[in-house]
Write a structure and sequence with these properties.
single chain, mainly alpha, 5 helices, elongated
Length: about 90
C-alpha cells in the first residue's frame, strides 16, 4: 500500500515504527528471554524459533545464532540481549 492511502497521522506512526524497529526488535527479544525460562515443550521450541527470527533481524552472526539455538540456554540469550543493549 502506498503511503498516500494513509492519513498524515497514520503516516507519522508508520514512519516512527520503522525508525525504531531496532529498539522494538531488541525489546521483543528481551521479553522472550523471560518467557523461555518459564516455557516447556512445544511452546519453548516456538519461542526459540521466534528468537532466531529476531536475532536475524538484528543481524546477529549466523554462527552465534546457531550456537545459541544448539545450547537452548536462556541465560546465553540474556547475555546477548545485554550486549545488544550496551551496543557492543
Amino acid at each position: 500500500m502506498a503511503m498516500e492511502n494513509f492519513t498524515k497521522h497514520q503516516q507519522g506512526i508508520i514512519k516512527r515504527y520503522y525508525q525504531n524497529i531496532d529498539q522494538i526488535t531488541w525489546q521483543k527479544l528481551s521479553e522472550l528471554v523471560g518467557d523461555l525460562y518459564l516455557a516447556e515443550g512445544k511452546k519453548r521450541d516456538k519461542l526459540w524459533a521466534s528468537a532466531v527470527t529476531y536475532m536475524e533481524k538484528m543481524e546477529v552472526p549466523k554462527e552465534r545464532i546457531a550456537h545459541l539455538t544448539a545450547k537452548k540456554d536462556p541465560t546465553l540469550l540474556a547475555k546477548l540481549v545485554e550486549e545488544l543493549m550496551s551496543g557492543t
